[in-house]
TrEMBL record:
PROSITE patterns: RADICAL_SAM. Residues 1-147 form the Radical SAM core domain. It comes from marine sediment metagenome. GO terms for molecular function: 4 iron, 4 sulfur cluster binding; catalytic activity. InterPro entries: Coproporphyrinogen-III_oxidase (IPR034505), Elp3/MiaA/NifB-like_rSAM (IPR006638), rSAM (IPR007197), rSAM_horseshoe (IPR023404), rSAM_sf (IPR058240). This is Radical SAM core domain-containing protein. Gene3D superfamilies: tm_1862 like domain (3.80.30.20). Pfam families: Radical_SAM. PANTHER family: COPROPORPHYRINIGEN III OXIDASE (PTHR13932), RADICAL S-ADENOSYL METHIONINE DOMAIN-CONTAINING PROTEIN 1, MITOCHONDRIAL (PTHR13932:SF5). GO terms for cellular component: cytoplasm. GO terms for biological process: porphyrin-containing compound biosynthetic process.
């Protein structure tokens, strides 16, 4: 008697399309990568050049065709909306091309510049008009996907089937499961301990690996169960629904009591609906 985990195992690889040569994709296939996340962002080459992205429309087509031919099981496209300089027409054209290519999953990610981005470090902020345009693009992208062959997937974005979901993310949201990130800037989570991020510099990362040194760049240890609960809630908000029962099952805590102040604040401002 035994447990068969073959269908549960998923190896995910994330890459810029311009770096996906035929040789690299064959290597990914050899090491059983079953889900390839491609950072497409936009098919507007001028916009991508402005933002210092290496990928181009032609590089996306080549990488996607190669990945399909080599037999990567599931392919995900990451698309950005609301980038400064991006027009509604440009975004719509990108979405039309994405839908025509028909990857298994499509993430439409609104541009929210965090402090680490060049945009924020240059002292720039999005105007009210840019934020409004970002929301219009996001709504348009989702409508276009729903009008084609895509649907909302639980703990995911828009896809064709649950089989194509990122299992690690789904398990982390549903069960607070640990996950291991390999490579530069990869994130890892250890339930009951904390989370950490690997070195973002490729040369330092490779040098450390050769010298048998830890690649950890930043780490955050949970002081207690409540702090882990807060991390879990923040990371689950993007999926629109957070059952209180699940919080209690995972942490043995009543979220209405533990985060009462935060919940009241968000409810009063119409940011969440508490039921």
């Amino acid at each position: 008697n035994y447990f068969d985990f073959k269908k549960c195992i998923q190896v995910v690889f994330e890459a810029n399309p311009s770096t996906l040569s035929r040789e690299k994709l064959k290597l990914l296939k050899k090491y059983k990568v079953s889900r390839l996340n491609m950072g497409v962002q936009s098919f507007d080459d001028k916009l991508m050049k402005k933002w210092g992205r290496l990928s181009s429309e032609s590089s996306v087509y080549k990488a996607y065709e190669r990945a399909l031919r080599i037999g990567i099981k599931h392919i995900n496209f990451d698309i950005m909306c609301g980038l400064p300089g991006q027009t509604l027409k440009s975004f719509e054209e990108t979405m039309k091309k994405v839908i025509k290519l028909s990857p298994d999953v499509v993430h439409v990610n609104p541009f929210f510049p965090n402090p680490a981005t060049c945009f924020s470090q240059q002292g720039k902020v999005l105007s009210q008009g840019e934020m409004q345009k970002r929301e219009e693009m996001n709504a348009l992208g989702r409508k276009m996907l729903l009008d084609s062959s895509y649907k909302f997937l639980q703990f995911e974005d828009m896809g064709k089937s649950n089989e194509a979901r990122n299992i690690q993310i789904a398990d982390t949201v549903e069960y607070n499961s640990p996950f291991l990130g390999l490579g530069i800037a990869a994130m890892s989570h250890i339930s009951g301990w904390g989370n950490y991020m690997n070195l973002p510099d490729l040369e330092k990362y490779k040098r450390g690996i050769r010298q048998n040194e830890s690649p950890v760049y930043l780490q955050c240890r949970y002081k207690n169960k409540i702090e882990e609960l807060r991390w879990y809630v923040i990371n689950s908000l993007r999926y629109n629904l957070l059952p209180k029962k699940r919080i209690y099952q995972l942490f043995g805590q009543n979220i209405d009591k533990v985060l009462k102040e935060e919940i009241d604040y968000l409810v009063k401002r119409g940011k969440i609906i508490a039921r």
